[in-house]
Amino acid sequence: MAEKYIMIHDIMSEHKDRMLNLKKYYPFFVLCDTTFSQYKEGKYMELDMGYITMATLRFFINENNFHESEITYEQYEEFLLELLRREFRLDEELKEEKELVGYIFDKIKNDGRAFTFSYFDPEEKKKKTARVKLIDSRIADGVVLYHVTTDGIEFYLDTKEIKEESNISVQQLLLEKMIQSENFAGGIEVVKRINNEVGKLALQKKEVLDLLSYDVFSGAKASEEYMETVAKWFDDEAKLFEKNRALIDKAFAKANAENALILSEIHKLDTELKKTIIKHGELIKETIELQNIADEMIARAKLRKLRPVFNFRDVLKKMMENDCPEQLGMLISPLLMPKLDKSFSVESIDRLLETRMDNQDYSEKVEKKQVDTDYVFEDEIEEARITGNFGRLFEELLEQLWKHGRTTLSELMAIYEIKFGKEIYKNGDIYSFLVHLAQKDKYELKKMQKKQDTFLEGLVMDALSMEKKDRYGDMVFSVFFEPGHILRFGEGKEEAFTITDMHFEA
After folding, report:
1. Nearest-angstrom CA–CA distance, 261 and 272
2. Structure confidence by residue, pLDDT tens digits, 357-391
3. Distances in Å between the alpha carbon of 248 and those of 69, 147, 148, 262, 272?
4. How far apart are CA 228 and CA 396, in angstroms?
5. Any residues with CB less than 8 A from the CB of 156 and at least 6 apart, and which?
6. pTM for this entry
7. Phi and psi torsions of 410, nearest 5°
8. Under 8 Å CB-to-CB from 71, ≥6 apart: which residues?
9. What is the pLDDT of residues 457-484, one digit of tens each?
């Protein structure tokens, strides 16, 4: 019974906090679900609002924190137009593109209103509404300036941390906004996160040292990357810490002495921030120490490399890295040189004398291998295919001339399409057939049966059956060309083929 009571108490007491934590995710799913479904009858449904929202938050975080500037609408419009053209190949009139950007921005900032998230509070037994904004604005000197909100930063950080050298700087931005909004309890959590990031860098330093101990060159590369990562935010961090310390001092001065809870939270936040500053100092000291150790170990490794020792494994590794197998010749050529000093063991003479000679001659059995006469070579397969295809195409041409006395290339190609399908246009044999057919102006079937003058005639005579030869045996037809008339076959610009028109008369 007691366990059940504890469970129910946990559900009721924690529900409000869980809902308030979930609220920062709510705008993202609202935006993804409804943004483009109603706009211009779904014309832009292929646009991904989730990607656009994340890109927008990253852009605002970058400008607000790293460049310490708020954004005008014109700056955002330029950024989003470039994104839409690059990622989604947007190609509309400039006026319509700008109208689309305005619509997207209004959706992300919800027309200046907060997104409302309703939930039930089991402790107070009533429904409550939580409000959340991703982008907020203010007016300065008659210009509207936009900035990312605390909820927007928290949501972006919860989905995935941005690049390592920016983690602490973004957390500092979040801390600044929380102090300004007097959310000191949340600020303490942010400072703890900053301490975790500093702790990660301290652990990474140990990993680099371990790598240096057994692979100096890989360790040297890792050391350079580590130094580059740390150096990117050292200078900026000092300014941000100083700024946040000043905000805490202002909060102390502003806080009412009677409000002990707020004063306690500000004091805890101040203490955590002091710990962070101390950890940063230690990290700077450890980074300098790492640089000195790395320099010393690299210098030792260089000296060891000068020793007159040939390491086959190192040479092989370098060859693989350079992708140069020709260098193996330097290793193998000495082994292939003739050995000039010959020697013969005395024990070998004893073995020769003791060996019994067998004077009997043995015949060698020679097995006659049978040749597989059924084996078909690849060129024979190709020749059989071409013969079959040319025969069917020529036979269809003869059939049309036998029925109608004349036909054109466009009519013939249409008949080919009906008989063999649209795939005929992708088959190279049809174009090869027409090229060979154009070699002569006149064809006589009787003469072709006795003597074949061209490659095409030889293949056609092999392919036609005796029945077809008897049926079309007396046929004579001529080929005429129309250079001014060009036919196009196939679908699409890339797949289309152009052929000079021809007509055939029997």
Report:
1. 17
2. 655 555 666 666 565 556 667 777 888 888 888 88
3. 22, 22, 21, 12, 12
4. 74
5. 54, 57, 58, 61, 162
6. 0.40
7. -65, -40
8. 59, 60, 63, 64, 145, 146, 147
9. 888 888 888 888 888 888 888 988 887 7
Query: CB neighbours (10 Å) of residue 93?
Result: 8
Rounded mean pLDDT of 174-192?
66
Residue type, 467: E
What value, to the nearest 5°, has the Cα angle with vertex 211 and ends 205 and 214? Answer: 145
- pLDDT tens readout for residues 277-302: 677 667 767 777 777 777 777 776 66
Spatial distance between the Cα atoms of 33 and 374, rounded to a whole number of angstroms = 66
3-state secondary structure of 128: strand
- Name the maximum alpha-carbon separation found in the chain: 122
User: What's the first-to-final CA gap in the chain, in angstroms?
Assistant: 104
Type and span of the H or E element at 146: strand 143-148
Cα distances (Å, whole numbers) of residue 303 to 212, 264, 370, 440: 16, 59, 67, 81
Query: Which pLDDT value is given to residue 338?
Result: 65
Q: How far apart are CA 31 and CA 52, in angstroms?
A: 10
Categorize the per-residue pLDDT at 165 as very low, low, confident or very high, splitting at 50, 70 and 90: very low
Cβ(477)–Cβ(401) below 8 Å: yes
Task: Kindly list the distances between the CA atom of residue 386 and the CA atoms of 244, 382, 392, in Å, as whole numbers in the listed order.
Answer: 82, 6, 10
Per DSSP, which regions of 373-496 are E strands?
406-408, 442-444, 476-489
What is the per-residue burial (b if ≥16 Cβ within 10 Å, else e) of 277-302? eebbeebeebbeebeebbeebeeeee
Average pLDDT over residues 47-55: 89
8 Å CB contact between 444 and 478: no
